[in-house]
Specification:
The protein is an alpha/beta fold and 324 residues long. The chain has helices at residues 50-65, 70-78, 80-91, 102-105, 120-123, 148-155, 169-176, 221-234, 251-254, 280-289; strands at residues 42-44, 135-140, 160-166, 186-190, 207-213, 235-246, 261-263, 266-268, 274-276, 293-306, 311-323.
Length: 324
C-alpha cells in the first residue's frame, strides 16, 4: 500500500553531508519567534492553539455530515485491491522517494542490532524462506520497496531476511523486478492482512521487527484490531512493531471535500484508495490489546511552509514502537 498520494506525507530528509551533524529524531528546527515562520521551508514539533483545534473539529464534523452511503462504503471495501493495483499500474516506481529518515527515527532497522533468539517452535518448524536467518524483518504494505531496499543496502547482511508483503499484486511484482531484489535475503509476497485465511510464509514467533508505515490507515477501522493481533503473534518475544501513520487533523484530512468521508475520520481519495487519521489514544488502546508494551507513542506535528505563496501547511503524524 502507498504511504500517500502527495509527495509530502513523510519526511524525506537528504542524507547529511560529510561532517554535518545528523538530524535528531523528530527534527530539531523549532519556531520560537512567529515572525520567522517564512524563513525556512519547515518547522518541527509545532504546538497547535485552541482555535486551530476548534476549526479542525468543525471541518471534520462537516465532512462526516456528508458521509457516503453504506452501499458505497461496502463497494470501496470489496474493490480495495483493484484500486491499489490501478494506483501502482499508473505510478509504477516513479512516485515515492526512498525514506532516508528511516534509520534516524527507527535505529532498530540499522546494522549492529542484536537479534532475538528463535523460540523452539520456530527452530523445529517445517522449512520456510529465511529459516536460517539470524534476524528477520517484515514490512507490511511494502509498496514498491522504498523501505525494503534501503534496509537491505544499509545492513548488507547475509544473515538478515527481509520479508515484504502488499495487498497489491502489481506492487509486489515491481519489488521482485527491482535490480536489488535477491530471494536469498528478501521474500516478497501478496497478502491481505485483514483476511484470516491469508497464507503467511513463516511461522508465528519468528520475526524480530514488523514495520507498519502509512499502512494501517488504509485498512477499514473495524479490521484494525484483528490485523494488529495477528501481527503480534508473528513477533518473537522481545520483537517490536515500528509504526508511523497519519495523525488526527493532518492537512491531508482537512483538505477532503464533501462526498469523500466514509465514516468518522475515514475517507476515500479520488482514485478509490482509503485513509484513516489516528489519535495516540486509539493506537495505544489497539496495540496494548494486542499484547504489546509501549516504548514510544509520539505525535509529530510539522509546519511546512510555501515561502513563495506565504502558505502554512500543518502536518500531523504519529510514530510508535511497541514490544512483545
Amino acid at each position: 500500500m502507498a504511504e500517500s498520494q502527495t509527495t509530502d506525507t513523510g519526511r524525506e530528509s537528504p542524507k547529511p553531508e560529510e561532517g554535518e551533524e545528523k538530524r535528531p529524531q523528530f527534527g530539531g528546527r523549532f519556531l520560537t519567534n512567529p515572525e520567522d515562520v517564512f524563513q525556512h521551508n519547515a518547522w518541527d514539533n509545532i504546538e497547535w492553539d485552541e482555535e486551530q483545534e476548534v476549526t479542525a473539529r468543525k471541518k471534520t464534523q462537516e465532512q462526516l455530515n456528508s458521509a457516503l452511503s453504506t452501499e458505497k462504503q461496502e463497494e470501496y471495501e470489496e474493490l480495495a485491491d483493484e484500486y491499489w493495483n490501478k494506483f501502482y499500474q499508473i505510478h509504477q516506481n516513479r512516485f515515492f522517494k526512498d525514506r532516508h529518515w528511516l534509520f534516524t527515527e527507527f535505529p532498530e532497522l540499522g546494522p549492529d542490532v542484536k537479534p532475538n533468539e528463535d523460540v523452539k517452535s520456530v527452530v523445529d518448524s517445517p522449512a520456510f524462506p529465511g529459516q536460517g536467518a539470524k534476524r528477520r524483518i517484515l514490512e507490511v504494505g511494502c509498496g514498491v520497496g522504498n523501505t525494503v531496499f534501503p534496509i537491505l543496502q544499509t545492513n548488507n547482511d547475509p544473515e538478515l531476511m527481509v520479508y515484504c508483503c502488499d495487498f497489491s499484486s502489481t506492487a509486489v511484482q515491481l519489488v521482485k523486478e527491482h535490480p536489488d531484489y535477491n530471494p536469498d535475503t528478501c521474500h516478497a509476497f501478496v497478502c491481505d492482512v485483514t483476511d484470516d485465511k491469508a497464507e503467511i510464509p513463516f511461522p508465528d514467533q519468528s520475526l524480530d521487527i514488523i514495520i507498519l508505515i502509512f499502512v494501517l490507515s488504509a485498512i477499514s477501522p473495524e479490521k484494525m484490531q484483528y490485523v494488529l493481533n495477528r501481527l503480534a503473534q508473528l513477533l518473537k518475544p522481545g520483537g517490536k512493531i515500528l509504526f508511523r501513520d497519519y495523525g488526527r487533523y493532518d492537512l491531508a484530512q482537512l483538505r477532503f471535500k464533501k462526498g469523500h468521508c466514509l465514516s468518522e475520520n475515514f475517507y476515500v481519495r479520488g482514485d478509490g484508495t482509503r485513509v484513516y487519521f489516528f489519535t495516540q489514544e486509539e493506537l495505544r488502546d489497539m496495540l496494548t490489546k494486542a499484547g504489546l508494551t509501549e516504548e514510544q507513542n509520539h505525535i509529530d506535528r510539522r509546519l511546512q511552509v510555501n515561502r513563495g505563496r506565504q502558505l502554512k501547511m500543518y502536518r500531523v503524524w504519529i510514530q510508535c514502537k511497541y514490544r512483545k
